[in-house]
Amino acid sequence: MPRVRDEFRRAQVAIGALFLLLGFQYATWGSRLPAIKSRLGLSDAEVGLLLMACGVGAAASFPLVAAAMRRLGSLRLCVLSGVVLSLVPLALGAAPDYAVALVIVCCDGVAVACLDVAMNAQGAELEERFQRKAMGKLHATFSGGSLCGALLASAVTAMTSNLTAHFAIAAALILLLVAYARRDLLPADPTLAQPAAGAAADTDVDQPAEQRKRKLPLPTRVTLWMGLAMAFGTIVEGAMNDWSALYLKNVAKAASGLTPMGIAVFSITMVLARIFSDSWRERWGDGRVVVLGSSVAGIGLAIAVTTGGVVPALLGFACVGLGIAAVTPCVYVAAAGQGGDALALVAAMGTVGLLAGPGVIGLIANASGLAWGMGAVAAAAILVAGCTTRISWTAAAAKASKALVEPAVDYVDAP
């Protein structure tokens, strides 16, 4: 791959390669779930538990990810987790039984969480260092990776049903992406490793250094608001992917050929919005983009559900894709300004929302009908707007952002 000359673009392409990698890796083994199910003789419930194990591993890994960010820094954590992710599909394809497959997929969730936090830290540092918006396009690249993974799976399956061959090709491509990205990821600056004078003044000097290193700080109120915004945002994303087709079929009474259009409309508008969201952020600021966008998502979907019908539903899904697209990129940037621990916690809460959201919507639909379930999705989007009004979008200092990219020499409690 040719080397980009511009320093900002070079780093952006390198970080984008990691987002591409993550989408590609998940789609690689996710697209072969039928073959894995057949090979291990699994039931539908066991496949569901296998998928849940990945999310549980990611959500439960917050302390590990926070510690790894402090010890390794985002650059080395990106490389390490990328290498691990290249091996997971191969290990899953060779798993001798279901119990081993569960362990492998749980480890995949931990590696996904590590890469997720580290690459978003790199993206936040890219914006801070060059004072240019980039996170929206980076998150759009993730969707491109998912598409590439699905296309590769289709091409390989057309030639051979051998899982090992498919996963070996995917592993080689992932390792190439890691090697390419490694050259141009943002490096640590040793001069930034020393604590600032203000931070030193807030340190408990009587506390032993080793004890301070091991102590995890309690999340601040702002961090909790960010986490809630991320959780509600991922609830909306997950519910649209899992329930839009059923809503079109059972509530809007769409023809069977139209039911996949719910996911298609949502996904396309979301990717397009993420591509353009960086320019919106430059013009109006992150806070306005998130509050306005999530309000459009919630109100648009609520009107669609109230009105009923196929066309209003598709327009409502388009509003959700358009409005919710910038939430995750912007909240990640804001969390990065609070430090690596805040970023890890916010990412974990987002994973919890992605896991729990579709199930909660299912319970509401089972009790009151899917129209009420979609109404709950609209309410979650409005709650995103409410949570994000509590976030100070300009409070992130340059030192806090840069500290995400470097391995810390010592760990001091935040004031």
Spell out the key features of this protein.
Growth Hormone, Chain: A; 2 domains; mainly alpha; 415 residues
Name the CATH homologous superfamily of the largest domain: MFS general substrate transporter like domains
Number of domains: 2
| Major beta-sheet overview | none
Nearest-integer average pLDDT? 83
Q: Quick one: CATH class of the largest domain?
A: Mainly Alpha
Helix count, DSSP H or I runs of 4 or more residues: 17
Shape: globular
CATH architecture of the largest domain: Up-down Bundle
Helix content: over 70%
**How big a fraction of the residues is strand?**
under 5%
Radius of gyration: 21 Å
End-to-end CA span? 45 Å
Q: What's the total number of strands? A: 0
Order of helices and strands: HHHHHHHHHHHHHHHHH
CATH fold naming of the largest domain: Growth Hormone, Chain: A
Structural class, from helix and strand content?
A: mainly alpha
Brief digest:
This protein has 17 helices and no strands. The protein has 415 residues and is mainly alpha-helical.
